[in-house]
Amino acid sequence: MVSVQWLGGLFAGVTGLGSTLLLVPVMLPLAGLLLAIAFGGRHPRRIVLALLPLGLVAAVGIAAVVLEADAPLRYDLGGWAPPLGVTLQADGLSAVLLLVTSVVMLAVGLYAWPGFGVPPGSSETRTSFAFWTLLLGVWGGLNLVFLGQDLFTLYVALELLTFSAVPLVCLDGRADTLQAALRYLLFALLGSILYVLGTALLYGQFGTLDIGLLRDRLAAAGALPPAAIAAAALMTVGLLAKTALFPLHLWLPPAHAGAPPAASAILSALVVKASFVLIVRIWFDLMPALLTRSAAEVLGVLGAVAIVYGGALALGQARLKLLVAYSTLAQLGYLFLIFPLATSPAGNATGEVLTGGMLQLAAHACAKAAMFLAAGLIATSLGHDRIGELAGVGRALPLSVLAFGIAGLALVGIEPSGAYLAKTLLDGAAQASGQWGWGLVMQIGGLLTAAYLIRVFFHALSGFARPPALRARPARYQELLVLGLALCSLALGLLPPAYLAVVTVGRVAAAGGGLP
Amino acid sequence: MTEFLLSAAAFVLATVALGLIRILRGPSDADRLLAAQLLGTGGVAALLLLGVATAESAIGDLALVLTLLAAFASVGFVTGTVRPDATRSPGEAPAARAADRPEPAGEETRR
Amino acid sequence: MSDATLFGLCGAALVGLGLYGLICHPGALRKLLAFNLVGSGVFLLFGAVARRGAASGFGGDPVPQALVITGLVVAFAATALAVALVVRLAQAAGRTDLDPEPPARSEATPERPS
Amino acid sequence: MSAVEISTVFTVFAVSLGSLFFLAGTLGLLRLPDTLTRLHALTKADNLGLGLIVLGLLPQVSSPLGWIGLIAVWLLALLAGATVGQLLAGALRPSDGTPPDRGGGSA
Amino acid sequence: MSLPAPVDLGLAALVLGLAGWVITTSATYRAAEGFVAYGLVLALVWVRLGSVDVALTEAALGSGLTGLLLLRAAARLPADDPAETTRPGPGVRVVAAVLCTAVAGALAAVVLLLPEPAPSLAPAVAANLSATGVGNPVTGVLLAFRAVDTLGESIVLVLALVGLWSLAPDDAWGGRPGFLRGPAAASPLRFLAQVLPPFGILVGIHLLWIGADHPGGKFQGATVLAAMWVLVLVAGLRQPPRVTSRPMRGLAVFGSLVFVGIGTAGAWLAGAFLAYPEGLAKPLILSIETALMLSVAVILGLLLAGPPEPDDAAGVRS
Amino acid sequence: MRGAGFFGFWLLLARPAGGESWADLAVGLLAAALATWTSLRLLAPGATRVRWGALLRLIARFLWQSIVAGLDVARRVLDPRLPIRPGFLAYPVRIPDGPRRAAFGALTSLMPGTLPVGGDPDGALVYHCLDLDQPIASSLARDEDLLVAAQGGAATGD
Question: Could A383 and C98 be called an inter-chain contact, meaning their C-beta atoms sit closer than 8 Å?
Fold first, then answer.
């Protein structure tokens, strides 16, 4: 295993200015996007595949530097410091998210390589051009969301994300995916505008949009002004609409299930997480004082309902991709349990809870991407994805089914998966603070997950003697790729604690202590 | 003088705002559009008055922009209703009437 | 009451009105119009904030003004994209409401290979 | 009467008259019986109103360049108004096409 | 320096009245018409709020182009669209009304409770504006202090364009945008489209040029330019370029690329990404603005022109 | 010719806010050149010579008729009896189809009581009139004569 110090030193040395590194994850995809549009033809795909490894290297570098310095990296854009200027900042959270994004993006990009090419004889096709450029848009938007430190810049980043994610949903142009995309777009726009409304109120109250400065001014203000409370409420609701937490979830399943599998993987694994991360930033970084028991419990209850409700609906789905999409609803619920758990009366578990939450996020990102990609392989090979007619698939496409299964197991939270470690951490916090109710919800959620997976396997592994005729056989490397992603999720729990500590770098202690 | 110009601006605005009753009353879509058109012209007049009264040339620029774009809603109205995929015989005279509008004058609106 | 406060209140009312339209109209284009109302209400509120911050010889705080310009352009882009989606949906499905159930005709369609 | 006073009187007169034409346009829009006749009121009265206001403002603008600016706004407004009038009139024309009164007119 | 106070009240009443019309009227087309008037009034409101920059944007974009877009879209709705006739039951409406009134009321209360004196960055902008070389504070904020937002926004526009194009049917790729196509235009419209655009070009460039020191700037100028292009397209004098056209695509991303390029150069020459070397700030800002205006104008026009349609569809002019 | 006109327009846009600089003028020239180029692309110059005398007379008549038109409408609208007799009238216009006829349409749409609604199959322009009792056709004929004269005379007859 490469030593962290060595890596950090390498990157600090190579760049000479550690924080300049922060520009790479944002500008690489965006500049690539512009070039991809200008060149068109077969170039967008090449550009994406050339940039993805570079992005991964930059993300590893940032994580290493952050971990080594044990302090956030900051970069003042244009040389103007807040409140006038805009700052990029990578704390531990950002570093983890950048890494997860790079890994999933790289896997999805490789997976989509054959599916979104330009056939010989044609100079450019719609799907190829749109998919690769929009993928770059999603990537740049995500990275800007993770690094942005200014509330309005984050709005622009969210819009980058929306404008590239929505068209991905209806890439196949069917009426129902168009409708799903439109519904998604309207939800996303509503979410953005509510978010901007909160931004306006905060600016009217404090005269700055920089998260760090706002936190200081809020802390100095003593009593919370009504504008801050209203802003927090509006922004949270807006971002919940984008994250699709119950009861604002209606748009998600049809949108995620209708998109091409590679796009579904990105949408489910990464895009909905961006708005979740902003909620975390608002409540933990911006207004820790506002994160009272009752506010946290509202979010927690919504999350709990989402776990049970999403899980139950997933159990009843007839199509594999819809099942995976509903499973996303449930898994998003877990993330919201960190709010009540982090505000436990015991008051010293924030660090563990956040670490658990981020682990869950990362584990879900890898697992869900793997599940969507595997479902896509199965659907492409069979020509359908009806769960009831999966008989024999286990024989015909063993690797894909294995990948789906491992990803599913990782989601259920068996040892040593990331989700297992996450749930251990969260459960520990729940026990420590006597909030056993949340732990119970997690157990129920796990059981539901296991139930719908078993249902899939029951069908997929039956009829072993009569494998179905396949329309097409997926490329072996695609299957291995998906398997790799699933294993990633499973192996996350093996990470040494020293690496996990990166999550808490740059966290403010005000919320009631962090990891030592 | 400034006072007078400002009052005149207010008067023009109030007048054209009165015309917006047509938006409520219709009866046709064209009538509503007329009200909007009137608002545009009146707005330009009011802005000119305001611009001279406050000696702020930027307001004059705004009036200019409004004038340039004044026709846009009507252009959208006139050209919008005919679907591009609607039948159009190749031999039709290029001078064709913009008048493939379904709507007889003064009647109730579409649909 | 100052003009800033007046138009700030106006913006608040617009947000409420627009939200109502967003909830109550089934048609996508109507929802889009309502969204634009919410948007302009939010920008108006931002404008009121800018007006209140008039100082240093400026008629308003230029920072929120600049943000509003950015917001307006983004809102236009959003409207254009949504309009194109609505028109495509109208062509493909003959309707523009957002009820999830009706267009269930995709059940049997094969997946796009990828 | 000094030049300033004359120009003031002129401005007050022209602007007031122009505003009255706007009023006339609005009244026409509200009173006239059908869309086409309302269109008449709109194009004619408003353009004259705007023209008079521009005329009235001329003495208040110091530079000759400012004059041309005002007049340019008016001319562009005329062009737009004339186009819109014709477009809408064309759109509102009854679909049966030819008018009753052919040829030479009714002079 | 201000209109009589009742004017403000009147404007506010108009805005709310028109918004109420947009929400309550039964037909979508009427709502769209109301929205056109609404945008006009809003532009006046922005003048009253002391922000001619925003008023220019709102007048050109909010009322002009959006109005055209919405009217044309409303006219294309299916005649028997169930969305036109179905309405939620009274129960839903009452709940929604109560909820929305509560939101509006809470917001109003927050507005009334905003601190006095209001916090403002105006002094900070004033103090640092000279470093940017421009005189218009809004331009300073957009191109220097918060340049990253503007860069992001220009890329958002590019993405919206890609998204719009991606809605085309597969066989239409390589075709021309079809939303603005129509039957042969009436001759008055053609005449307008022949006479007006040169003036529009002058006004657009003028807005860009004075935008450095006075209200105006690239977005406003670009909107006017786009409007003129759209006029020419609607009148059928020219056809929109094919989506595969290299020059057109190059133009669309040109502004953002120049922005990124100059920003990156700043990382070497001025110590930070998006920073400008001392003394060169104003020319560089103007270069970026010029490039962006071209690109934004092209993109806005293309956004209005809609997704490409197959060449064999009706409406292709000879 | 057109270029000079557009440059003049630029000058008036660039209101002397702080004295013109050379950069101002340069940008203005560039803008005027662009505008001229666009104008020439969109509207190719015809073989007409402008007759300044006729043009002046046309302008004078136009201004005067605009005033009459406004007064006319105002009078009718303010009259409680609302004295109008609307109807259609076809005017056999001599100017051939094209920009010039469009200009004629634009011009006459601002004249008292007339509003062109489009052409008819015989090549005539159809007008909607506010009051059919007025001498409309003769008035239109005068307008047309003046316009033709201003554009260089007989070249335009059909």
Answer: no
